Amino acid sequence: MFSPQRKDFVSLTLGDQYSRGYTNGKHRRQSCWRKWKQLSRLQRSLILLLLAFLFICGILSFSSLTEQWRGLSDRSVKEDWVEMDNRGLRPIPPGLLPKPPAAVPGVIQDIPSEVLPKLHRPSVPLLPKPPAMRKPPSKRGPPTLQKRLNVTVSHLKDRGDPVVGKEADGGTEAKTVISWRGAMIEAEKGTELQPSARGKEVGTQADFDEPTPLRPESRSCGLSLNDKNHRHSCRFNACLMAVVSEKPVDRAEAVREAFRHAWKGYKAFAWGHDELKPISKTHSEWFGLGLTMIDALDTMWILGMKDEFEEARKWVQTELSFSKNVDVNLFESTIRILGGLLSTHHLTGDTMFLDKANEIGSRLMPAFKTPSKIPFSDVNIGKGTAHPPRWTTDSTVAEVTSIQLEFRELSRLTGDPQYKEAVEEVTKQVHNLEGKHDGLVPMFINTNSGKFTRRGAFTLGARADSYYEYLLKQWLQGGKKETELLEDYLQAIEGVKKNLLKQTSPSKLTFVGELSNGRLNPKMDHLVCFLPGTLALGAHNGLPDDHMDLARQLMETCYQMYAQMETGLSPEIAHFNLQYPSGRDIDVKPADRHNLLRPETVESLFYMYRFTKDEKYRDWGWLILQSFNKYTRVPSGGYTSIGNVRDPDNPVPRDKMESFFLGETLKYLFLLFSNDPELISLDKYVFNTEAHPLPIWPSTS
Ligand code: DMJ
């Protein structure tokens, strides 16, 4: 309550107001001072406290503002565009769109002419090309170190770097150092964290700092984008120089040897089971359907490994049974099992594989019995029932839109339209759905409503990736007639260019970030590395030239995701540096350091080499194969995923060989090194997302 004194003060103030007219402010100032002096001590303290508080708030908001000006905080896409604008990279206003490019001779004529003018209008310019690799400064490091420039691959092998173990199969003699500490190291959990759970997404400067000193051999190579800051790229590039100058090696044969080694482990410890656990010399089961065996069938055929193929064929014929009370994931079993059986049927002409494909296809059909006809994620192939995951009625967008190549092909081969009809209904619905952002799709779709859910997050990585891949590939599979697929694909690529493309601050590496409620998160899954290959495939088939430019830029980035790691192997997820010009390009969060032997980068290298014939793509693939051999090969047979690509002394084997290592990674490496462009010609086949080639339909189909 107010004290009597305070009441006096109020009456004085009122008197002052009446005299304001002729004091011209001076009196007003005096009055303020008097008012201040007449306040109680408590009141003055409170006011001072309030002022101090406001002052501190002011300082804080000023510093965050300046951070934004410096680009240190999460910037909205709009703000990024302001920056692009400043660099002269503004999107061209619609009225000034360039004319559609003239038809490329040859393939482009296949696109219906009435569709082209509408579709061929790349409206968003690409980011500028990264600078060419610099030559090293002439004097760098002691001369003795510079002499090591002519290091050869065999020299690198002998320099004491860790080798997983001694070959037990009579193959090339390797060192017996087992670099992984301890025999069995606990597998790390996957890291598909929700954005909110991931914590800090934009790195601090320390995240992009150099953690350890340069190794001598790194200093001497001098081929990196930025010598000071990319020692791992540098080391990798030292290897690259060595690769270029090494004696001719039959690289395709080296892939065959790797396959034999992987198969040896699978045969010895996991025969007929889903996956090999090469360290513990046992197996793991996912669906209990011999996943690795089926995924590897067409790889063996393509690699010309007839004996191994015959053994596997016999198992499929006599042991493989789909009459099992087991829940399988619709997407995974479609791309691996149905896709693998169909492609093997095509390559061999053996109808046994088609019969099996038909059987698994029909057992998967209950998944489509939902209120919306958007399929459930899981099917019990024995009981004929389907259901969503326990915690939701949503399905993943990539999963429901990446089963079309296989089911359409099954209908074509069997004459039974039910497969094609079911998956094309999904395509039609997704095509018409609201909630896309410049052609980019959210990650989830509800099986009851048929609508996108959890909108606002857009990625080319997990849960959305193969949606984009299958738009293009279905269009190719069907003979370039289904123009809605092409429209959706072209619009999506424009959406990527407009919303997700960024370049790192140090070396201007182009990457595809993620959009989360309007904010760009500068992270990219290794899964996104399918994109350079898909873009190149589109460009080869008459789509705009800037798709190929983007493919080249992203291919470089995907390669750097390997080259800048200490093991020469990519992490599962990379965070890119948008802020600190003198730091590293790539940071890896502790939860993302694993490598699962994934194929996407070597897949894209294969496409890039086929279309450009640039040998550097083969050299990059060769280095990656050698890193797999060095850090993931298990002496007793098989390869293992690892937990830490940043630690060459302890890469932390996770004791699992995923089926896609044989189904995809080694197949794409072999095709990359093969000198026969007709071996699975890209004008005759489309690869499904598990690397199983399916024929492009003849025009009469
Ligand atoms: C494979 O099963 C397929 O390539 C899929 O599209 C993505 N994930 C794995 C490989 O990384």
Automatic annotation (TrEMBL):
Active site per the UniProt annotation: E332, D465, E572, E600
Entry-linked PANTHER family: ENDOPLASMIC RETICULUM MANNOSYL-OLIGOSACCHARIDE 1,2-ALPHA-MANNOSIDASE, MANNOSYL-OLIGOSACCHARIDE ALPHA-1,2-MANNOSIDASE-RELATED
Matches recorded under InterPro entries: 6hp_glycosidase-like_sf (IPR012341), Glyco_hydro_47 (IPR001382), Glycosyl_Hydrolase_47 (IPR050749), Seven-hairpin_glycosidases (IPR036026)
Residues holding Ca(2+): T689
Cystine connections: C529-C558
EC number: 3.2.1.-
Protein species of origin: Triplophysa tibetana
Similarity section: Belongs to the glycosyl hydrolase 47 family.
Cofactor(s), by name: Ca(2+)
Compositionally biased region (Pro residues): 125-134
Protein name: alpha-1,2-Mannosidase
Pathway assigned to this chain's UniProt record: Protein modification; protein glycosylation
Biological processes, Gene Ontology terms: carbohydrate metabolic process; ERAD pathway
Transmembrane segments: 45-65
Subcellular location: Endoplasmic reticulum membrane
Start and end residues of each stretch annotated as Disordered: 120-145, 193-220
Membrane topology type: Single-pass type II membrane protein
Keywords assigned by UniProt, alphabetized: Calcium, Disulfide bond, Endoplasmic reticulum, Glycosidase, Hydrolase, Membrane, Metal-binding, Signal-anchor, Transmembrane, Transmembrane helix
Function: Involved in glycoprotein quality control targeting of misfolded glycoproteins for degradation. It primarily trims a single alpha-1,2-linked mannose residue from Man(9)GlcNAc(2) to produce Man(8)GlcNAc(2), but at high enzyme concentrations, as found in the ER quality control compartment (ERQC), it further trims the carbohydrates to Man(5-6)GlcNAc(2).
Catalytic activity, as annotated: N(4)-(alpha-D-Man-(1->2)-alpha-D-Man-(1->2)-alpha-D-Man-(1->3)-[alpha-D-Man-(1->3)-[alpha-D-Man-(1->2)-alpha-D-Man-(1->6)]-alpha-D-Man-(1->6)]-beta-D-Man-(1->4)-beta-D-GlcNAc-(1->4)-beta-D-GlcNAc)-L-asparaginyl-[protein] (N-glucan mannose isomer 8A1,2,3B1,3) + 3 H2O = N(4)-(alpha-D-Man-(1->3)-[alpha-D-Man-(1->3)-[alpha-D-Man-(1->6)]-alpha-D-Man-(1->6)]-beta-D-Man-(1->4)-beta-D-GlcNAc-(1->4)-beta-D-GlcNAc)-L-asparaginyl-[protein] (N-glucan mannose isomer 5A1,2) + 3 beta-D-mannose; N(4)-(alpha-D-Man-(1->2)-alpha-D-Man-(1->2)-alpha-D-Man-(1->3)-[alpha-D-Man-(1->2)-alpha-D-Man-(1->3)-[alpha-D-Man-(1->2)-alpha-D-Man-(1->6)]-alpha-D-Man-(1->6)]-beta-D-Man-(1->4)-beta-D-GlcNAc-(1->4)-beta-D-GlcNAc)-L-asparaginyl-[protein] (N-glucan mannose isomer 9A1,2,3B1,2,3) + 4 H2O = N(4)-(alpha-D-Man-(1->3)-[alpha-D-Man-(1->3)-[alpha-D-Man-(1->6)]-alpha-D-Man-(1->6)]-beta-D-Man-(1->4)-beta-D-GlcNAc-(1->4)-beta-D-GlcNAc)-L-asparaginyl-[protein] (N-glucan mannose isomer 5A1,2) + 4 beta-D-mannose
Gene Ontology cellular component annotations, sorted alphabetically: endoplasmic reticulum membrane
GO molecular function: calcium ion binding; mannosyl-oligosaccharide 1,2-alpha-mannosidase activity
Magnesium as UniProt keyword: no
